[in-house]
Prior knowledge:
Shape of chain B: elongated
Oligomer: heterodimer
Largest sheet of chain A: 14 strands, antiparallel, barrel
Distance between the termini of chain A: 22 Å
Helix content of chain A: 10-25%
Amino acid sequence: MNKISLSIIFIFCTFNFLLAQGNFMNDSAWTKKHFNIDIYGNLTAKSNAFPNDFYKQFYYGGYLSNEVKLNAAKDLKNVNRFGGDGDVSIQFRHNIDSIFKKTGWSYLVRIAERRHLNLEMTKDFFNVGFFGNAMYENKTAQLAKFQMDFISYQQAGLGVEKTLMIKDNLHQLGLVGSYLIGRNAQKAIIDKANLFTAIDGEYLDLEINGKYNRTDSIKNKQLIPNPTKGEGFSIDLYYQLITIEKHKLQLSVLDFGYLFWQNSAIAYQYDTLFRFEGIDIRNLIDINDSLINLSKDTLVNLGKRSSTKSFKTSLPTWFQVNYSHNLLPGKLALNFVGRYRFNDVYLPFLAVGATYYFNKSTNASFNIGYGGYGSFNYAFIINQRVWRYFTVGLGTNQLEGLLMPKKANGQSIVFSIKSWF
Amino acid sequence: MKKIKFFQYFSLGLFLVILGACKKREATDWDTNLLGPLFKTTLSIDQILPDSLTQINSDNSINVVYDDLFNSSGFVNTNQLPDTAILKYFTIPFGTIFLNAGDNFMDLTEESNLNFSPLELSRLIIKSGEIEVKIVNKITQPVDITYILPKALKNGQPYTFNATIPAYNSSNGGNYSASFNLDGYDVDLRGLSGAFVNRLVTHLIANVSTSANGLAQINSTDSLKVSIKLKSIVPYYAKGYFGQSKDTSYTDSKLTLFDRIVAGNFSLQEAKLNLDIRNGIGADIRAGLLSFKSTNSKTGNTVSLQHNSVSQIFNVHRATDNPFIPSLYSFEYNNTNSNLVSLLENMPTSFNYGYYAELNPFGNISNGNDFVYTDKAVEAHVRLDIPLHFSSNNLTLIDTIFLQDDSLGEHNTVKSAVLKLIAVNSFPFDADVKFYLLDNNLQKQEQLMDKSTIMAAQPEADGKVRTPQESRLPITISNELLNKLLEKRKVLAVVTINTFNNPMKYKIYSDYKLDLKLTGNLLFNVQVK
């Protein structure tokens, strides 16, 4: 068995592991096939505090009972994080025999639809939001730091890869540049927000310092994204090393880039110490007229609003290290993952795991990780080769979400369909 | 093979989970307890009473002052003279003649009686009005006419109008109709000789029109029918003899000031009413106030004014002209000479009064020189001055509040509310506040909350409040009650006022106010779509 053959076996063994991490990685380095199409989907949510039952119900709608809220509140931390991703992509890759008499080159084309939400809030923020400020009578609720980022965009990418053998070790470098079409964004950073509720609610003191940007929600309803609304760019840069000693190392920086929101961007800037003592009825004798003129903005429009201010979103960028060792070739591989996500509330994440091969067509992986948006999480993935050209993968990055759907703090579904020909 | 099945089952399971994930989203809602201020307001005297009714004294105490001026043309009905029509039928005084275009065939000056009876006017300055002219031409050629009122002058020029009357034909007579403005004309109504009254002098000149075609044949049966009408004449000045007339009248004048008071009473320290009458009519008048009563239809109480002016007939002397000097009469009603305070404390829903008036009781002693300037005939200046210095005993006011749809649009997510009314009162009276739900016929239904009392501030020894009193009143509104409120949208507010240490009377000062703040602990349903 030559090096290439060993490598092909190796990559098939580790494919599931890569899928379970929910990020881009490729196996083009070890195949003799010329063409490859990947379809990939990921729906993942994770929190260090909120149980699935809570945010699922929040997302799908309906009445949030006190029981659901109390259940969510009992595990609240001082800093509570939540992150979610929804991605669908399709990618075409062509390994070129030679170009300008050079070998080892390939190019790829990829389009993707991506959505990402991450937020971080204090316990008081959650309590005020879902239980109200009555429990803070004659107390100050510390609502900051609060951070939220939501982006939705489309991605069209074009990349090149170079694969080469150096001293029997296989090296691959890849670079993908993408043009981004923004669909929707919301961004809030509140560094300081203290809410004091006086006895009997006689007055409210709010000290707030922060800003909030969003795109026009009305224009967001359009089906076809409008490039004039938001556009940007991103790059993926990755390196792979596969040694003859069955070690594999992957280093990647993914989704490094920006989205610029121009038209229909709305910005709020809050930096105020505000005391609210009720709607001022100028003349009690004409109370009806006074009530008619009440405006919701009276309560919420504490900051300056600029309807034309553009803003920039830094994409949540992955930095990822994967290491894998084929312990028992054809039977068992050990995996290690380290990752961090910039511009996000994500904490450094570490995971270890193993992949077991039932036969040449079927394998399954299990990983245990810690960090990210939550604490512990468990990933499981199973891959099956179907027909001749297809490999289908299904799994989850949050196995606990499937086993304990109400109590767990995360849920995830990932799938892939991969074909070489 | 078993592994394949495992994979299939696992895939099926995940597929179902994915389907679950595709469940249609709907709005999310939850209940939250929001505690905070809702409304705040300050109730001060200047909100209860308009500035035009209050007068702040040097010690900052407040008087309610009602000051008004009534104008009347008095007993002479010259507000608008009756419309008066004059119809003239001019025939040709000789047999058939032939005239060229432009030839004159009529030039007549006449005087006509105007029906202004019983007024016998010798002079009239018209403030506004018009003359309506209708002419029917029976001549078969068009006619140019000039119509002049030689004794109606404006800027020294007589009133004149010119018109061309179309020719007569068998199907349609030559009709002409127009109206002209008479504003500002000074009309001598003494006729051609200057010895009569109510007589208007007219001058008609008629020529065959210069636009006539060929010779005009005019027969003795041809005519011009001229009709003029003085319409809507409002005099600025009238002179003559206004005749004799007598009038006795009793009138009800409704009063809404106390409409909202349904029970209790108040006691005023003092009140004063000044009545100044200014007679600008150049005619003698004999007049008297026959009665003046304060009637409260809710209690059935009636209080009659007791004052030496009541039931006395007195002569009002005529004004003099050139220069114009009216005759003046003044009356004062106060605590010492009348029972005015009792009339006000009766909280009248109406005043009922009767008067007697007689014009020119001594006949035409001016020899036709009665006069009136209609904008300054009779003026009555009434000034009612009530110091806000009173005591009240269970004085109960009501008001109906109609909650508009718009005002409740955002309130339908409130499931229940525990409200608190925080009142800081510097008025020396307490106020019991109650709210009732009203049905569609505005009939009182259930009470919205228990009676709550805003406590009175305590005046110091000099009767002035310097330290306001705070009251915190809880108000609980259940979900059921809130729904009824949202359904009916009509609320009756009942406020009962008792002054501190009743029956002591206290002055109200301009710096008194009632600060109200309504806070709420609302069980609020938040909805996120």
